[in-house]
Design goal:
The structure holds 2 protein chains of 2 kinds. By secondary structure, chain A is α/β, with parallel strands linked by helices. In chain A, 35% of the residues lie in helices and 12% in strands. Chain A is globular. The N terminus of chain A is likely disordered. The chains are: A alpha/beta, B mainly alpha.
Chain lengths: 440, 533
């Protein structure tokens, strides 16, 4: 178990790299650099029973995951009536202890095992008023936590509030007008940075794979590496006016170099458990590696696509089942890995999708865009079990499920209880915070 | 042609004070803005280069030399007269206007009947058709983005497109909200039409623009139930700025705008939905309609100041956000320039005249302004292609990169547009910025795309033509070529970069082959300073 990197401070870190000379020449330069933030975030007050350096991992299931075939209401005859060809049979469903009439899709064996070990909870019937059925719009609503689907991302607002004095700013001196100050607080794996993580000040680092998070000129010819480093170093030492745009750019470029080196070094380490060979597994293994390396990152974001199952989605077997299997096996491996690092208690994982699907199957043995769906939470600190009631299959809204829990109640619970942040300020409204954590 | 502008004849220079240092030497003079015209003898290579970047998307060495040889007046007039330069006419049928056309009365009737009868299959069919149209329209908006990008790359009228980009950020409207690609195209054309025309006409055009009317919900605004969104943003973000109006003015303005909506692709004034009662807006009382509302705003002195300030911030130097600052608190030099431009605007809203005043002023070429602006993602990409003579390659990849850098055109993040300046830059966007240059110069696609490189070969040698013309030997001399390229790419000789670049050339044999020159350009465009213009 390697806990050493957690003790990494900015100074040690800088002097351990080849860019030390820049640090000596221009100390004012690095003073306000990215890594300043991570130190300050270190100082967040701890709550009893909650470990320091809490991390949130968001798993986005893109395309609209079919909630009814994820958490299966096998006790409901309406379910079987509405889904003649694609229903999961009662004998196939994985029963959740302590629940009644519902079970998990058989491909979610890993999730069930975690559930049995008190490592997973299911939140049923999550949605929002006047649901929007556009992938685009509904995803933005989840990302902004705003039904108008406009504004900054909810996690972006969290970072702005915590580090840049936009909100209650626990961490003291704000890094005013210095987006580089966001540093490595937020990392998203994927081609584009999710809106959820876009703040006014803090922007996430995002990369599809770590090779993207570096200057690609080096791959054109390795003779370019050396002059590239030299010029950046010389430039950093050169800038006189630290307030100028030029100095700001130099500083950010240097930060980018440092983060790039750290991240690529981190993910080069092979995981101690075997991950499934799917893309979510690959992404989560990278996240686990970065956690293991002690990166001061507070939120990671990963995405699994393909849930837009309009045709031939299958029941216990088939396409939707495969997707769930990938999800379940990847998350299970992720927590096995974290446990072997002794980091599982630091990491809460939340999964969501932009909407569920309609109750009735369509003519192509698939399902169309619907409304409310279940969310999963993972981690040993959770209040385990099934939360909320399964949405009614008889009291429908034009063939769609009515939500029972507003997703912002889940966000509020995570923000307040796990991240110790001011949910009201960040969500720009008062939501009853769902009790997500075990009582201390 | 002033010899000082010929980098070829300067040869290797001794180490200079840093850029930031030299900016400071000029700062005493820059405390006050000298708005008198720049003298022809002060307008050389650096000034022409600066003008091309700010009033457009940069220029090749040939273009820079041409503008420098013309002198300031002719150069500025050329850029300010897009209508005098031949360019492809935009065809009205460029895009399909019917993808998102509202359902016909017949279709709506069918839907209602299906709903009544509870015919799930028929309803599902309607929903599927709707989804299919949305899918097609999303494909078309990507086409509109590429079309605009291509136009920015190819236009011989760079200021026209730069102003279109300016207005798009000013009257920010997002496809995400309106989901109608044809309306986004029409709005883009509206901005182009008034690019350097008259602001009053543009503002009257905006309250008739389908995309804007939908974006700010004015199509739902009717007598008795006015929607305040458009009235509020016109006052707050489009024309006056916070502090220059009250909540009452917004409420009354919203009433004036009731009934301003659109049918299909055209503006429609619905008399039945218009509130024709008396209103008091900014102290003026009458039975105002939307046009009157706009005219009352245009008559406010705050309006000319607001627009002048926005133009100055976009073209000259970034200003603090207006909501935090009154005009009195502007930095003195900027305040003078803005007031001068506002004076011009208030005399007839001629944007061309206000821009001419700025582009010709000595102040515009002061050290505190030159090479101090952070390029927007659009300016970075379009500017690199134009100024380095690079192939544009795959426009989809460029659009994706611009999105990653924070500027997905036609999808601004909010009605406030893009914040600009330092908000463009963070550790992720820095690499995207460097790597999109690698793609343009070498064809190596960013990770995540099909791994085969774009085979189109970039030829950097024409860039050296001006240097060769002036002095054939210089084009063979690594030191002089490096100085020349630094000056082209950064606007100044970054002395700290010179030595490593010379060493690089020498380590590769010292002979300036096209590949080696491309290598130099890769290194120079990866410099943090390359993000400035």
């Amino acid at each position: 178990m390697n806990r050493e990197p957690a003790a990494f401070t900015r100074r040690e870190f800088v002097s351990g790299l080849t860019l030390a000379s820049a640090a000596l020449c221009a100390p004012a330069f690095l003073q306000r650099s990215a890594l300043a933030m991570h130190e300050s975030m270190h100082g967040l007050s701890s709550a009893p029973g909650i470990p320091e350096d809490r991390i949130l991992v968001v798993v986005q299931l893109s395309g609209g995951n079919d909630g009814l075939n994820t958490v299966v209401p096998f006790g409901s005859p309406q379910y079987y009536k509405a889904r003649q060809n694609i229903a999961v049979q009662q004998r196939e469903a994985l029963v959740l202890s302590g629940s009644d009439g519902i079970g998990l899709h058989p491909q979610l064996a890993g999730v069930r095992e975690m559930y049995d070990n008190g490592m997973a909870s299911v939140i049923q019937g999550v949605g929002y008023p006047n649901p929007n059925r556009s992938h685009f719009k509904s995803m933005d609503i989840w990302h902004t936590a705003d039904t108008s689907a406009t504004g900054d991302g909810w996690l972006g607002r969290y970072f702005d509030a915590e580090c840049c004095g936009q909100g209650k700013g626990e961490s003291g001196a704000p890094e005013q007008n210095d987006p580089a100050g966001g540093g490595m607080a937020a990392i998203a794996i994927g081609r584009t940075a999710p809106l959820a993580m876009q703040g006014r000040m803090v922007k996430p680092i995002s990369f599809e794979n770590e090779q993207l998070f570096r200057w690609s000129g080096k791959e054109i010819h390795n003779a370019l590496s050396d002059p590239y480093e030299k010029i950046n170093r010389a430039g950093a030492a050169e800038a006189v006016d630290t307030e100028s745009n030029g100095a700001f750019l130099m500083r950010t470029a240097l930060d980018a170099q440092l983060s790039s080196d750290m991240i690529r070094k981190a993910v080069a380490v092979r995981p101690s458990v075997t991950y499934p060979g799917n893309d979510l597994g690959r992404q989560l293994s990278m996240v686990a590696a970065m956690i293991k390396a002690g990166l001061k990152t507070r939120v990671y974001y990963v995405t699994q696509g393909g849930f837009d199952t309009h045709a031939g989605q299958g029941g216990a077997q088939g396409r939707h089942g495969q997707l769930l299997n990938q999800f379940s096996s990847a998350v299970k491996a992720f927590y096995d890995d974290l446990k072997s690092q002794n980091n599982d208690g630091r990491v809460l994982t939340m999964s969501f999708s932009e909407f569920g699907r309609r109750v009735g199957q369509n003519a192509s043995q698939g399902t169309d865009h619907g409304t409310a769906g279940p969310m999963f939470l993972f981690g040993p600190m959770l209040r385990p079990g099934v939360h909320g009631e399964h949405p009614s299959l008889t009291d429908l809204d034009d063939g769609d499920l009515k939500f029972r829990i507003d997703f912002r109640e889940v966000y509020a619970g995570i923000l307040e209880q796990w991240l110790k942040a001011d949910a009201k300020k960040i969500l720009e409204g008062s939501y009853r915070a769902l009790d997500v954590l075990k009582k201390a | 042609m002033p010899s000082a502008i010929q980098p070829a004849q300067n040869g290797p220079k001794p180490a200079q004070p840093s850029k930031a240092g030299s900016a400071q030497t000029g700062s005493a003079k820059a405390r006050t803005a000298n708005m008198s015209p720049i003298k022809p003898q002060d307008f050389g290579y650096e000034q022409a280069r600066h003008l091309l970047w700010r009033a457009g998307f940069g220029g090749t060495p040939q273009q820079i030399q041409t503008l420098a040889s013309w002198g300031p007046t002719k150069a500025v007039d050329y850029l300010l007269s897009p209508d005098q330069v031949e360019f492809d006419k935009i065809k009205a049928d460029l895009f399909d206007k019917d993808i998102m056309a509202p359902p016909s009365a017949e279709q709506r009737q069918m839907y209602r009947e299906a709903q009544k009868a509870g015919d799930e299959d028929a309803l599902a069919k309607v929903r599927l058709m709707r989804q299919e149209r949305e899918r097609l329209d999303r494909r078309q908006i990507a086409e509109v983005q590429k079309w605009w990008l291509k136009r920015m790359v190819e236009t011989p009228r760079p200021l026209e497109e730069k102003m279109t980009l300016f207005w798009h950020g000013h009257f920010a409207t997002s496809y995400r909200t309106i989901e109608n690609s044809y309306h986004m195209f029409l709005q883009n054309e509206l901005f182009r039409k008034h690019a350097v025309g008259r602001f009053d006409e543009l503002l009257l055009g905006i309250i008739r623009d389908p995309a804007m009317l939908a974006y700010l919900d004015n199509n739902d605004s009717r007598k008795g139930k006015p929607n305040e969104n458009l009235a509020r943003e016109i006052m707050e973000l489009f024309a006056l700025g916070i502090g220059a109006y009250g909540e009452k003015d917004i409420k009354e303005g919203a009433r004036a705008l009731t009934g301003y909506t659109f049918q299909d692709d055209a503006f429609q004034f619905q008399k039945n939905n218009h509130d024709d009662g008396a209103k008091t807006i900014l102290g003026k009382s009458g039975k105002w309609d939307g046009d009157d509302f706009v005219k009352i705003i245009l008559a406010q002195p705050a309006c000319a100041m607001f627009i002048a300030r926005k133009l100055y911030g976009f073209f000259a130097e970034e200003l603090p956000p207006s909501e935090r600052l009154s005009d009195r608190d502007l930095p003195p030099a900027a305040g003078q320039a803005v007031r001068a431009m506002a004076g011009t605007l208030s005399k007839g809203w001629d944007l061309r005249e206000a821009l001419r005043q700025m582009f010709l002023s000595e102040h515009f070429y002061s050290a505190r302004l030159m090479s101090q602006q952070i390029k927007s993602p659009t300016v970075l990409v379009v500017g690199a292609i134009r100024s380095l003579n690079a192939p544009a390659r795959d426009l989809s990849i460029l659009n994706d990169a611009m999105d990653l850098m924070g500027q997905n055109v036609l999808f601004p993040p909010s009605v406030k547009g893009w914040e600009g300046g330092r908000s463009w830059i963070n550790t992720s966007t820095m690499f995207v910025r460097q790597n999109i240059l690698t793609y343009l110069l070498t064809g190596k696609k960013p990770v995540g795309y099909d791994a085969t490189a774009d085979i189109m070969k970039y030829d950097p040698m024409p860039l050296l033509e001006e240097l060769r013309k002036a002095d054939a030997a210089a084009a063979q001399d690594p030191g002089r070529v490096i100085d020349y390229l630094l000056k082209l790419c950064l606007g100044h000789n970054a002395s700290y970069a010179r030595q490593p670049l010379v060493e690089f050339v020498n380590s590769r044999g010292g002979s300036l082959t096209p590949d080696l020159v491309t290598g130099l350009l890769l290194l120079i465009t990866a410099m943090p300073d390359y993000q400035l213009c």
